[in-house]
# Entry
Amino acid sequence: MTLADIARHLNIPVRGDDAIAVRGLATLKDAGPDQVAFLANRAYLKDLASTRAAAVLLHPEHAKECPVACLETANPYVGYAQLSQLFDPMAVARLEAGVHPSAIVAEDAVLGEGVRIEANAVVGSGAMLEDRVVIGPGSIVGADSRLGEESHLHANVTLYHGVVIGKRAIMHSGCVIGADGFGFAHDGAGWHKIAQLGGVILGDDVEVGSCSSIDRGALGDTVIGNDVKIDSQVQIAHNVHIGDHTALAGCVGIAGSTRVGRHCMLGGGVGLSGHLTLCDGVQVTGMSLVTNSIHTPGVYSSGTGAMTNQQWRKNAVRFKQLDEMAKRLARLEKRQLG
Amino acid sequence: MTLADIARHLNIPVRGDDAIAVRGLATLKDAGPDQVAFLANRAYLKDLASTRAAAVLLHPEHAKECPVACLETANPYVGYAQLSQLFDPMAVARLEAGVHPSAIVAEDAVLGEGVRIEANAVVGSGAMLEDRVVIGPGSIVGADSRLGEESHLHANVTLYHGVVIGKRAIMHSGCVIGADGFGFAHDGAGWHKIAQLGGVILGDDVEVGSCSSIDRGALGDTVIGNDVKIDSQVQIAHNVHIGDHTALAGCVGIAGSTRVGRHCMLGGGVGLSGHLTLCDGVQVTGMSLVTNSIHTPGVYSSGTGAMTNQQWRKNAVRFKQLDEMAKRLARLEKRQLG
Amino acid sequence: MTLADIARHLNIPVRGDDAIAVRGLATLKDAGPDQVAFLANRAYLKDLASTRAAAVLLHPEHAKECPVACLETANPYVGYAQLSQLFDPMAVARLEAGVHPSAIVAEDAVLGEGVRIEANAVVGSGAMLEDRVVIGPGSIVGADSRLGEESHLHANVTLYHGVVIGKRAIMHSGCVIGADGFGFAHDGAGWHKIAQLGGVILGDDVEVGSCSSIDRGALGDTVIGNDVKIDSQVQIAHNVHIGDHTALAGCVGIAGSTRVGRHCMLGGGVGLSGHLTLCDGVQVTGMSLVTNSIHTPGVYSSGTGAMTNQQWRKNAVRFKQLDEMAKRLARLEKRQLG
# Structure
């Protein structure tokens, strides 16, 4: 691949010798003469002058400072993302079609053109895999589940029955879609299981990280919008709705029936209680607990920052006295002003 | 199925035409004329008058306000749970017995009557599966493990060797029972692994959610009581004991050797330190950290609620000054009163 | 096995009859006359006088109080760890070599001597398994991955392509190594995936718990040092580096590009933000959030301890007023002193 090929793929101009051959991507600092680097964050501007890269993807404003060929674009980070796709060995387009002889595919499953099913995968009765779907080794597609065009289950993914996933989904290993929501009725002595009769629907361009869980609905469906990005170790309970373009970082937990808007971002380890509504454009910082609905876009937080354990012990004890302290403070004010 | 069939199953009376055919369950708002709805929460009483359901499962006190046939019961939520079971396509009773030809079952494994082993499952040497056990596709039953009657491992579940599970268990995909507890001895330079020689025992009617971990004991066993319900993404460390009828919501983590009583409820993301005792009837709200034993039933919490990041930054800084603030407050009081 | 065999294995002296046959390990309290017990914590000294064990592994200072044979060692906890290895049925050395006929092994995979590959495992093209590696049932080794001598993947482990793991690793079921890091570029309307082109490198003697995730790097590698011990349900994001001998308890989450030093210990549920540096010798207590780098060894904490929900509600409300309280306190002081 030459710089000219790359420029054509990104549909942007090259400044410099576009015949240079390129075999990969690297940071400004690490790139060798057959790699493309990028400048998407001013913090790395210091590395530009000394880069040995074949070319640098950057904003036109930095072109003059670039000692090598330039690929100029208004949003170099997006350019880097697009460029990275060219070098991904696991890209669906690069994998050969075919069903491995050890895979178990139900006779009535419907497979589109160019589908790839890898070793020891299992595709259940009535499942429908659209064109160019890839099912990784050991993955299970439950009965009557559907996967849209070019969706990719990596190894050891589990879809329960009746799960519906849109186009170009990427599901990482160990994730489980459509397990029972956590629903039980208590009779005073013990628990009665509530069968989870709803489904799970994921839109187009959804990515789910490794070992994440998205449960099926109790009656209605759990619904994940288009272009929702979900990291690893995330738990999404029954009947949750997530709006388009929202991103959930690792270890997030969302309790039942909560609705998260579009273009939201939840930091790592954030917990949302059940039956809440978060409007569009809400960001929650890492490890915050949200127990009330949020109706105004913005950034929200809870918790306290880390300090030495010695300091923390003293302050944490005072936290238990905080209401009493507030009352004593009010009393002092009253006396002084009275 | 008719309303009469349902009433017979729940052992409760129908008021109205019991010959109506029914094909499912729905909420009061969504139910069509071939679905049963339920009223278990006063918040939904507003939807009763306009429901189009075939019938409504409700407390007798609401029967007069119901525009359609009634299924009357003292605990409609439990009634709904029982009714939901009739419509669950994954109910063990609805699955056909038989061992899939691709399953690998050790010659000396003991299978009861009506056992079902699905594609690519592996059952180890000396394992014992009681009557009507179901092993989902890709699931692994370790050597010498035992599963009680009608227990159901969904797809891609892993049981290590020597795991003992009671009757009617439901184990969701990706859960792992019996992996090594986290035990290492430090010699001043590095770690020596402590082989985890204990086992894991789960009682009857236990449910474990997707991608949850229950580790085996170091010497003695990790013990989960009867009717314990465990959600997804939960971590239960070695030698933990959980009492009967306790429920653990998603993302709970319990450190080694802690004992949780009967009829406890831990909210999502709760963390319990090791070597604690929680008595019966303790509830802990979401994302609380418990570092001391609890000897009185009741509801416990820690942490702080979410606020805007702007407010939070100010308050979180003050938290680090809290002990100093408390001392200044005491000084002021002393001066004013002195 | 006799006490003499054990003493030879641990290379320590026996005091008492070394011909006694031993079949296992137990606590001082539970041990029977064919089990060895240990005293590694003064809290259990009270159980020493009444133990029925065959022998007790202990520090020489307690030998006089021991009613049975003694195995004396300066560090009885390390002795216990070493001894426990003798009784582990899953020890790699105890498992028979051989490839199960149902395993799918690529023709160009390279297998060392004594390799064991269990039922339905899948080993990809170009993978290299060094001597005595064990691949558990249903585990997947991605193309071009490498496993050092005596490494053991338990059942249903997933390694993506190009993962490099050192010697004597233990990877528990459901863990996923090398899934894509969570990287996306936003173009103002939605997300563009950044292909994760880096790798994952694990040193020697690493253990990874069940259902844990270690993501591959975006460009460079995610690097886990030697003798790093990782519990269950842990999330390690792309390009994280973890220093040698560090231990991460269950449910820890570490965001991208953070570097954790050597000999660190992170308690259960700890969260580290991205792009931080923690120096060697840092300990963080359970469920703390760390959002800034730490440059001084020591113990760090955040959060607040659990209290009754009634108390907590009052104090948590006051937390939201904390900055205002601090200002009022300062005003009072000024007036009183002014």
